[in-house]
Amino acid sequence: MSQASLPSVDIQSVIYLNDPSEIVRGAEFSANSARFARSEGLLGDWRLVLGDCSPEPVLSADDQQAIRDHVEKAGGVLSYRHFGKNLGSAAGHNALAEGGDSRLIVILNPDALMAFDTLSSLLGAMDENVGIVESRQIPVEHPKDFEEATGDTSWASTACALTSRKVFDEVGGFDSETFFLYCDDVDYSWRLRIAGYRVRFEPAARLFHDKRLTSSADWPASSAEVYYSAEAALLLAHKYSRDDLVESLLAQLDLDRDSGVIRAVAEYRRRVATNTTPAQIDADHSVAEFVNGNYAVHRF
Amino acid sequence: MTDTTDAQPAVSESSLLLFLDNLARRDGANSEFVAALDTAREVLLSELDSSGPFLTVLMRTQGRRLEPFKDALLCLAAQSSTDFEIILLAHGAEADDLVELRHAVDNQVESFRSRISIVEVEGGGRATPLNRGLSLARGRYVAVFDDDDVLFANWVEEFLIASEVGHGKLLRSIAATQNAAPETWPQGELGFRTSTWPNAAYAKSFDQLDHLDVNHSPFMSVAFPRYLFSSLGLTFDEQLDVCEDWDVILQGSLTLGVHSIDALTCIYRRWEGGSSSYTSHSREQWMRSEKRVIDRLDNAPQLLPVGQIARIRDRRVYITNNNDEAARQLHEIHISKSFRLVQRIRHILARPRQIVAGAKRRIKAL
């Protein structure tokens, strides 16, 4: 197969005040994964596309050169863009996708590390019926359930996921008006499923996402995580026509004294009052899954 | 981070060095003897400051579980500290599996691949490849990380930080467990599925006395100063079918002491329905190995960490008191009215059974 007929890929990451050495290291691992996919005859042209939302560019000229060296050695091209403002994850990725023309897009956390065969496994799982394919994160695996034979799952985390540009454009990318940081991927996955595409989990596509647990093996939630996940939970329930759930969530969150939760509830009520909540979809609840506070059945 | 012994200085020496110092500080100690102790001390400390990487990671694999192995490699590649080398010990791997192992290693990023050596080992038991790895190790510390477990990014870094404080001791971090079962993945790989959230099932800090009962420390949660092997002559016991980890943890901890690290750094995968050392070895092999580990310790004098004598006394007093209390409660039960009443009823109820049993014996005798 000629290089031109092979799928082209843009690997997109949105940066916000990350340690530059993390970005350089991540680029080294992504480039290695692209190199391997090319050697396997699975990948044509590819770019590493970085969008920087930090107030000042975090990558020095030397950092950019180090990244460029990794990327070009693997036959790719580097694109680094400083947005000059904090767009958030959803709008940042939309802006990066707007400037590209690759057949496929990888949405990748800038601090996550691909294995050598991650991209190959993602590409192997993609076909015209698949909207998005998600990697398996380690050391802390996501507890979402998935079908053993097909990998089909409720939604795909965009810590590292492959989607096609055609379907990305078809559904209008991420809903950046509604989601700033969290649940933009849940919403994107569910809109893909409404449009008739499959959402797949590909366990062979491993990704190291540097998450750590407390000494008691608990998840140490950051204040940003508390705020954005509470806000996103309300907005997601509203958008997917679960007014009953919004009511019960509000009743539950109103009892919470965490300042992040209080701010999230206030922001949701402000949106309702100013009529800036998203339009409701999935009226017959055919796609959205709200299970015990999660957006999928969890296996643990 | 916390030390397992009380009243320790900020930088705490190993049990062996403390023991040597105590001998040397005694009034009237022979000066030649003290000089010899000082020399011994210098020999040991010089290895802690030797060149070479901070850590040597010994990774055993038989090449049969490629997907967990790839996870394990990625965990090592993702470490926040890169001051380590890896000796990959392919133990009895089939030719096809060896090709897959080499393929996975050859395709790592260059900055990581250059720190991996592959060593083929044939024959022997679980300890054999470890001794081969030790003979090649250059690190100031040595850790064993098997091919089916998981590390957080701070695994090496936490050992490195702790080595500055727990000078020359074993370093021990917190491990979690997570259940996993073999499963074929959508593209046909022999994969697995995790089925539980990581559980901090092991003790948070090292307790010497508890470890004499049973091992509370998965192998990869411990880093051993290499001088334990190179200068003090410890080896992995190749006569053991299992428990080779418990054996060196006990011998090492009783010689050098342990510095506990208050950070979760690794996950021990518990395989459901697959093979592991628990399923591949018989109960007799486990019992025989346990006995050998304890017999060896009992056949030589041992150093206990500071504070353990009082703890042993406390335990003995607790057990004695509990035994006295148990005896008192048993006596009270025996002399109680209810027990005596029930005893009479029991005697009456037993009569028909005795009659039937007697009849059966008589019939058999006919």
Quaternary state of this entry equals heterodimer
Low-confidence stretches of chain A: none
Query: What would you say the CATH architecture of the largest domain in chain B is?
Result: Alpha-Beta Complex
What's the N-to-C terminus distance of chain A? 43 Å
Number of strands of chain B: 12
Q: Would you state the CATH class of the largest domain in chain B?
A: Alpha Beta
Euclidean distance between termini CA atoms of chain B: 78 Å
Helix content of chain B: 40-55%
Total discrete domains of chain B: 2
Task: Please tell me about this protein's structure.
The complex is a heterodimer of chains A (300) and B (366). Chain A has 300 residues and is an alpha/beta fold. Chain A is 37% helix and 18% strand. Chain A has helices at 20-39, 61-73, 88-98, 118-124, 165-170, 184-194, 223-239, 243-253, 259-273, and strands spanning 9-15, 46-52, 77-82, 104-108, 112-114, 130-138, 160-164, 198-209. Chain A has an eight-stranded mixed beta sheet with strand order 3-2-1-4-7-6-8-5, with helices on both faces. The longest helix of chain A is centred in the first third of the chain and has 20 residues, at 20-39. Chain A is globular, with a radius of gyration of 19 Å. The model of chain A has no long low-confidence stretch (mean pLDDT 97). Chain B contains 14 helices and twelve strands. Chain B has 366 residues and is an alpha/beta fold. Mean pLDDT of chain B is 89; it is low at 5-9 and 362-366. Chain B folds into two domains: 48-304, Spore Coat Polysaccharide Biosynthesis Protein SpsA, Chain A; 310-365. Helices cover 48% and strands 19% of the residues of chain B. In chain B, the strands form two sheets. In chain B, strands 1, 3, 4, 5, 6, 7, 9, 10, 11 and 12 form a ten-stranded mixed beta sheet that branches. A two-stranded parallel sheet of chain B has the order 2-8. Chain B is globular. In chain B, helix 3 (66-77) runs parallel beside helix 4 and helix 10 (244-256) runs parallel beside helix 12. Chain B has helices at residues 15-25, 31-48, 66-77, 95-106, 110-113, 128-136, 155-165, 208-213, 227-230, 244-256, 277-280, 283-298, 308-335, 337-365, and strands at 2-3, 12-13, 55-61, 84-91, 116-121, 141-144, 150-151, 166-167, 170-184, 190-194, 222-225, 258-271. Classes of the chains: A alpha/beta (300), B alpha/beta (366). The interface between A and B is large, with 35 and 41 residues.
